[in-house]
Specification:
The chain is an alpha/beta fold. The protein has 13 helices and 19 strands. The strands form five sheets. It has an eight-stranded mixed beta sheet with strand order 1-10-12-11-13-16-14-15, with helices on both faces. A four-stranded antiparallel beta sheet has the order 5-4-9-6. Strand 11, helix 6 and strand 12 form a beta-alpha-beta unit. The chain binds zinc ion (ZN).
Amino acid sequence: MDIRDVRAALDLGTAGTAMFRSVEDLYPLCRSITGEGLRQTLRYVGEHAPLALREVASGTEVLDWTVPKEWTIRDAYVKNSRGERVVDFGRSNLHVVNYSAPVRARMSLGELRPHLHTLPDAPDWVPYRTSYYRETWGFCLSHRQMTSLPEDEYEVCIDSTLADGALSYGECYLPGATSDEVLISCHVCHPSLANDNLSGIVLAMTLARHLRACSLRYSYRFLFIPGTIGSIAWLALNEATVERIKHGLVLACVGDRGGFTYKKSRRGDAEVDRVVARVLQERGVPHRIEEFSPYGYDERQFCSPGFNLPVGCFMRTPHGQFPEYHTSADNPGLVQPASLAGSLEVCLAVLDVLEGNRRYMSENPKGEPQLGKRGLYRSMGGFAQGGVDELALLWVLNLSDGEHSLLDIAARSGRAFDSVRGAAEALAAHGLLKEIPT
Ligand code: ZN
C-alpha cells in the first residue's frame, strides 16, 4: 500500500468526524511549553501513532536558548469576600496566564487590576496570555466581567510550581526506502485553543496514522513540539542530521472554514513549495500562496539561515487573521470536521506528489515512439487503455530528457500531476522511459 492507495480509500466524512472528536478530546487539557498537560497530549497522540516521548532537562543550553523550568498548575482562582470564585481555572484553563508563578494573597481591586487581562474590543471573550520567559502571574477574563467586579477584598491563589524538570516533545519516525526525510511539525503548547494548536496536532497525528501502514519512498519524521523552544531544542539535538530533511511542512490553523494558505519556505523555490502550489491549483479551491517571512510558527526556526531547511507552513486562515485567534472563541465550535478532512486530503495529495515526483530519460528520443502498437494510443483522441491520458503521454515523452521532473512536466503541460505520473509509469512499463536515480 502506498499514499495513493490511502487517498483512494479516504472517506472524508469519516475522517473529519474522527479528527473532530480528537480535537474535542484534547481541548480540555492545560498544555504549556512544559508540564503534565503537554505530556498527556503526547500520550494521547501516542495512542494513535507510534510516538517516542523525549525529555530535555531544564537548564539545558539549546542554541541561544535555555530550556526553562517546568510549570505545574494545580488550581487558580480569584475569590470575593464571600468566598465565591469569581475567576476559576477549573472552568477554563485560559483564566490563568500560562506559566504564572505561584501567588497567595489578599488584595483590593486596585491592586489586583494590573494582573487582570481582558479584550476590550471583544468584551465576551477571554484572552490567552503567556509569561514564559518573565516570571509573573495573572488572570484572564472577559472585559464584561472585569468591568462589573465591585470594590472588595479579593483572595488570589495560583497554586503552581516552576521547578527544574524537563521540556517534553514527541517524535514519530516512519522509515522509508531512503534515509531522506520529510518533516511534519506542529506545536503542542497551547491550552484550550482549538484551531491554533489542536487542528495541527490532529492533522499531523492522522497523517502519521495513515502513513505508518504505507510503504514509503521517503522516511517521515513527525514532531509534536512546544512552539519555538521545542523546535530550537530539536534542532540543537539533531544538528548533525538535519541535512536529511528534503521537504517539510509546519501545520497550524487547519480546521477553520477559511481557504488554504501556504507560506513558502525561505528558499522560495523548494520542491515542497512548488508541490503545494501545484496541488492547490489543481484542486481549484480558494487559496493563497505567501512568500516566506521570519514570523509565524516553527518554520521561523527551521528556516533560520544556519539551517535554511525546505520547510513551508500549511494553514487555512493564518494566525492573527481570524478574530477568535488566541481567545476563548477559538474553541471546537470554530473547527469544522469538513475543514479538517479537506486539510488532510490536501496534505496527503502533497505527500503523494513528493513520493511520486521523479525524473526519467526517454529510451526513444528520436521521433515519437509508436504508441499505437503498444496499446498506449488510440487512433481517435482520448484515453488509451487503462485510462492513460494521451496528451500526458506525449508531454512525458517529450520532456523526459533527464532534466525535467514529473512536477515540471505537469506544470508546463497543465496536465494533472496524477495523469503525468500515470503516463510515466505506463511508458516505463513498456520500456520507453528509464528512471534517473536521484
Ligand atoms: Zn498561537
